[in-house]
């Protein structure tokens, strides 16, 4: 049931579904950029926790995106 | 201000240059071709007596009071129906016409009850005025002859009376209902002396097609159609010009008062959005502002199970500040936040987000626009570079093809709906894309060329299929695309894929391929084609994708950047546009600039003296999730009823119950207040001073008609909370807040209260390049430079029908009610909508043994509610429909956590449900299936 799924997991997988038409690496970048632009830091943290604990629950391209999210961002200042 | 009476030029303006020269009573005047002699005279300062003419309606020529003499012409033509000709010489005051006019008046008066002194229209009656103007001194026919003086009044409408004994059969009401409103509810029955006005076929107003817009009342020159409030309270003596607070059309009104008592709201002729028209809500449904249910004193309580305790403002404000700070001390700066309201003024919304960013020190500010139009912000920003509609409302008068997608303008945006219908009657073609057969599909004198009755949630597949047709049939506006856009090739390649063809998508969308092809051709080949859309686009898991899909289509066909075209969101609440503009999203400062932009943050940091966070904060659904996981514990809810309007209500309730502090500011103790620890009473729009921004980016002044009944303006309260939290915030006047907004927001640079008082209203961007505003956007270039084609893959929603939940529920609104109904339910509008009903197709009803009017249970995987069934073939089989105006029904008990992938705008429009005949136990109970808790029973 959707209710037992972590919201961040559900949302990240849904974003990935909407970038499905974009080729691999670029999709991961687009997802990471989207998450940086629109997600509160605690949500990003929770997504990374999901990636650590239950990687299987995440879309493969979301997993790649989480790697990108772990890297520090220069431009955003945050 | 004294009572404002706008001048009446007798007949409508004709477009074009003033090229025809005429002389009226020796006064020369130049007017555009086609102008009537009456209007030309009025422009020369000469008022010709008239009764059946008024400048909101086409001339009719029935009363013959306006006769004139024209040199070189025989007889005495009616000036209202006679167009000017070059070098015409007109005489309006000759013994001959004066005598004719007196004869006409004499006839009218002989069949009129001469109770002027006690008549409700005394002092505001054109018949009375004209009797004076024509110098009527005697009535030779006597009053004993055959007359209509005994005709019975019709008091069926809750807001206005019809007294046929006073009717002069001028037919202004009939024409207003047709020409202005487009409803055609009235007719003149009979001929000659027997002619009389009648709603429908001899029905009462209430039983007729009348939608109570008030246009006929406005047009009536006598007391025949009169607001009941005028009958009861007397003629008003002064006016205050303000803006309706009910919907995104943003109609201007004259609030007319007698002393300090509001007598009536009359649509303002100079209103940029409405040009003198109104709907039942703005015109009549203002009684809630003085409803006894309003709470006027602040209240606090320790626990939500405690009774409320009335306190003084100071204690309430200190309590909020102390508790917010205490939460932050324990759980960190990001553990609190606020939700601002699209019903509040720009100035109020601005100070709320300022309080959050500067005093709370985080970006946890979101607005209720999250749950309606956030995908518009995202989609239009991505493609065009600005999160706003492209046109002014007047632009629709130039459209040749109008495509209405997921919107129901005649109910949701009635005054704009009337404008649109007028254009459709003039011959523009209409395409409706909606699962429901909305009224526009077929109504008097309007018929859609195509109704694409798609399955809910398949918008993107339909728009891609239309784009497929445009691209593969060579209908692209190549030069527009080459000059002004980027990303076309990749997009064109994508939409041209066979899987996006109308034939391939037909099984998904349920729309016959031929219909899609014909609609796409119609849209692409029209000289001007415009798209208007509403929540049926945005409130989907692919809302943002669909907004981009429409933008793509408009760019591909070159339908952007001039009158008659564009992509236009029809905004729900009155200030959705403004609340978004004002920096109410957790990722954006005012004017849609991202918080991560150092240069933008610096502007605010320097002015506010605080460091701002560069990371986005929580959006409303994220706030609820974070409340449940314990990291978000204090919330200020400004003027919104999230515990009724938001989806998946048991999740919302659980989140609110989990919080340490919920502060609610509202007019009434709403559903959310049940979870609140502090209640701050709010001010109605009649007590507010500030601005609203409507769906066409028009900034309108809202002027206080009365002092705040609570003793404080809402912006003051917010400032005092921030100050009590250690961040001093104060303004003397909301005009100062607008000046600050203009200082920090490039698109608002030129806006000030002085400018608005001068011009009446202004459409942003308003700055050095456009000092008087911008009616049409993206004229020579897109705001982002090149318009960007975005690939819009169709991703089906996760919400699937199953054998347990085999039907799809979609939600909407109706004309007479507004949002959660807190206001409209407290007015005479309940006469039209006493309860929410569930519309279902006869086949689905029959399969379930449901008859029209039965109580049925409506269940989804998250909750269930009970409501009355209405069997209707407006919905296709398999789809059911309801509104969400009444808390007792709690329609959102059944809506789910699904949301738009990009913005988290909830997917209200698609919920898999089951409908069954309810057991005749309690009617109207809503409960969540997981907890079994009864919720929302008044
Ligand atoms: S109130 Fe509006 S809809 Fe009703 S009869 Fe008058 S003009 Fe027509
Ligand atoms: S009701 Fe008023 S507007 Fe209508 S025909 Fe009679 S006098 Fe004229
Ligand atoms: S159309 Fe909207 S703004 Fe205009 S009067 Fe009706 S509710 Fe108010
Ligand atoms: S006003 Fe011209 S005929 Fe009535």
UniProtKB/TrEMBL annotation, chain A:
InterPro entries found in the cross-reference section: Formate_DH_dsu
Identification of the protein by name: Formate dehydrogenase subunit delta
Q: Which organism is it from?
A: Streptomyces solicavernae
TrEMBL record, chain B:
Query: Where is the 4Fe-4S His(Cys)3-ligated-type domain positioned along the sequence?
Result: 96-135
Family affiliation:
In the C-terminal section; belongs to the prokaryotic molybdopterin-containing oxidoreductase family.
The GO terms this record gives for MF are: formate dehydrogenase (NAD+) activity
Q: What is this protein called?
A: Formate dehydrogenase subunit alpha
A Pfam family assignment: Fer4_7
Domain 4Fe-4S Mo/W bis-MGD-type, by residue range, is 237-293
Q: Which residues form the 4Fe-4S ferredoxin-type domain?
A: 158-189, 202-230
Keywords assigned: 2Fe-2S, 4Fe-4S, Iron, Iron-sulfur, Metal-binding, Oxidoreductase, Repeat
Establish whether keyword Isomerase is in the entry: no
Q: What class of enzyme is it?
A: oxidoreductase
Domain 2Fe-2S ferredoxin-type intervals: 18-96
EC numbers listed for it are 1.17.1.9
- InterPro entries (UniProt xref): 2Fe-2S_ferredoxin-like_sf, 2Fe-2S_ferredoxin-type, 4Fe4S_Fe-S-bd, 4Fe4S_Fe_S_CS, Asp_de-COase-like_dom_sf, Formate_Dh-H_N, Formate_DH_asu, MoPterin_dinucl-bd_dom
Keyword Oxidoreductase among UniProt keywords: yes
Gene label:
fdhF
């Amino acid at each position: 049931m959707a209710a037992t799924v972590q919201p961040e997991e559900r949302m990240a997988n849904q974003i990935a579904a909407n970038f499905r038409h974009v080729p691999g690496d670029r999709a991961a970048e687009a997802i990471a950029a989207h998450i940086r632009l629109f997600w509160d830091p605690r949500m990003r943290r929770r997504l990374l926790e999901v990636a650590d604990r239950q990687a299987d629950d995440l879309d493969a391209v979301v997993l790649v995106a989480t790697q990108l999210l772990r890297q520090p961002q220069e431009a955003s200042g945050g | 201000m004294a009572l404002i009476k706008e001048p009446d030029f007798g007949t409508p303006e004709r477009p074009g240059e003033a090229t025809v020269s005429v002389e009226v009573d020796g006064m020369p005047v130049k007017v555009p071709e086609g102008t009537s002699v009456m209007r030309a005279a009025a422009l020369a300062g000469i008022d010709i007596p008239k009764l059946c003419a008024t400048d909101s309606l086409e001339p009719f020529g029935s009363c013959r009071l306006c006769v004139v003499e024209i040199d070189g012409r025989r007889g005495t033509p009616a000036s209202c129906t006679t167009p000017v000709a070059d070098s015409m010489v007109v005489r309006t005051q000759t013994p001959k016409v004066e005598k004719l006019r007196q004869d006409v008046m004499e006839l009218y008066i002989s069949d009129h009850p001469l109770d002027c002194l006690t008549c409700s229209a005394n002092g505001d009656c054109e018949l009375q005025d004209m009797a004076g103007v024509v110098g009527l001194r005697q009535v030779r026919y006597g009053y004993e002859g055959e007359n209509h003086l005994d005709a019975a009044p019709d008091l069926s409408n809750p807001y206005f009376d019809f007294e046929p004994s006073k009717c002069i059969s001028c037919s202004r009401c009939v024409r207003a209902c047709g020409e202005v409103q487009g409803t055609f509810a009235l007719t003149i029955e009979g001929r000659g002396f027997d002619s009389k006005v009648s709603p429908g076929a001899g029905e009462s107003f209430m039983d007729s097609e009348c939608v109570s817009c008030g246009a006929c009342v406005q047009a009536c020159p006598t007391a025949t159609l009169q607001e009941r409030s005028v009958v009861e309270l007397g003629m008003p003596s002064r006016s205050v010009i303000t803006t309706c607070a009910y919907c995104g059309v943003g109609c201007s009104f004259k609030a007319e008062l007698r002393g300090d008592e509001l007598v009536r709201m009359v649509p303002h002729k100079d209103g940029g959005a409405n040009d003198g028209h109104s709907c039942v809500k703005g015109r009549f449904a203002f009684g809630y502002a003085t409803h006894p249910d309003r709470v006027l004193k602040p209240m606090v309580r320790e626990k939500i199970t405690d009774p409320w305790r009335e306190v003084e403002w100071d204690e309430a404000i200190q309590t909020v500040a102390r508790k917010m700070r205490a939460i932050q001390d324990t759980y960190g700066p990001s553990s609190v936040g606020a939700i601002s309201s699209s019903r509040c003024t720009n100035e109020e919304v601005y100070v709320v987000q300022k309080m959050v960013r500067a005093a709370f020190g985080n970006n946890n500010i979101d607005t209720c626009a999250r749950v309606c139009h956030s995908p518009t912000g995202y989609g239009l920003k991505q493609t065009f570079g600005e999160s706003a509609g492209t046109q002014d409302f007047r632009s629709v008068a130039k459209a040749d093809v109008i495509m209405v997608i997921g919107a129901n303008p005649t109910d949701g945006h009635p005054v704009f709906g009337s404008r649109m219908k007028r254009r459709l009657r003039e011959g523009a073609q209409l395409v409706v894309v909606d699962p429901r057969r909305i009224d526009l599909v077929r109504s008097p004198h309007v018929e859609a060329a195509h109704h694409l009755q798609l399955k809910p949630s398949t918008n993107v597949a339909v728009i891609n299929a239309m784009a497929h047709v445009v691209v593969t049939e060579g209908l692209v506006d190549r030069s527009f695309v080459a000059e002004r856009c980027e990303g076309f090739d990749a997009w064109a390649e994508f939409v041209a894929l066979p899987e996006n063809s109308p034939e391939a998508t037909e099984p998904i969308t349920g729309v016959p391929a031929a219909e899609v092809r014909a609609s796409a051709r119609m849209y692409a080949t029209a000289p001007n084609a415009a798209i208007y859309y509403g929540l049926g686009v945005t409130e989907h898991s692919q809302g943002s994708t669909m907004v981009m899909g429409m933008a793509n289509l408009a760019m591909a066909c070159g339908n952007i950047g001039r009158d008659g075209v564009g992509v236009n969101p029809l905004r729900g609440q009155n200030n959705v546009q403004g609340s978004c503009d004002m920096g109410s999203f957790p990722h954006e400062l005012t004017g849609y600039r991202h918080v991560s932009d150092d240069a933008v943050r610096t502007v605010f940091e320097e002015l506010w003296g605080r460091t701002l966070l560069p990371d986005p904060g929580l959006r409303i659904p994220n706030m609820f999730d974070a409340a449940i996981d314990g990291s978000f514990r204090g919330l200020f809810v400004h003027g919104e009823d999230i515990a009724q309007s938001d989806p998946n209500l048991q999740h919302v309730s659980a989140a609110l119950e989990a919080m340490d502090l919920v502060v609610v500011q509202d007019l009434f103790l709403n559903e959310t207040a049940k979870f609140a620890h502090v209640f701050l009473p709010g001010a109605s729009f009649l007590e507010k001073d500030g601005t609203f921004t409507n769906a066409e980016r028009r900034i309108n002044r809202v002027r206080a008609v009365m002092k705040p009944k609570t003793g404080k303006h809402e912006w003051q309260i917010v400032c005092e909370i921030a100050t009590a939290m250690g961040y001093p915030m104060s303004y003397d006047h909301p005009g100062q807040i607008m000046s600050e907004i203009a200082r920090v927001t490039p698109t608002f640079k030129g806006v000030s209260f002085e400018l608005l008082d001068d011009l009446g209203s202004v459409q942003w961007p308003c700055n050095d390049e456009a000092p008087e505003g911008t009616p049409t956007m993206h004229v020579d270039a897109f705001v982002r430079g090149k318009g960007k084609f975005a690939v819009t893959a169709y991703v089906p929603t996760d919400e699937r029908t199953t054998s347990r939940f085999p039907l799809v529920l979609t939600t909407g609104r109706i004309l007479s009610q507004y949002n959660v109904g807190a206001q409209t339910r407290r007015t005479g509008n309940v006469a039209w909508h006493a309860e929410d009903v569930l519309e279902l197709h006869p086949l689905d009803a029959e399969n379930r043994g449901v008859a029209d009017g039965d109580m049925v249970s409506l269940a989804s995987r998250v909750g269930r509610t009970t409501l009355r069934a209405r069997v209707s073939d407006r919905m296709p089989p398999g789809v059911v429909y309801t509104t969400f105006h009444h808390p007792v029904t709690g329609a959102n008990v059944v809506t789910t956590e699904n949301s738009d992938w990009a913005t988290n705008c909830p997917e209200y429009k698609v919920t898999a449900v089951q409908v069954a005949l309810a057991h005749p136990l309690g009617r109207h109970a809503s409960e969540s299936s997981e907890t079994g808790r009864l919720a929302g029973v008044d």
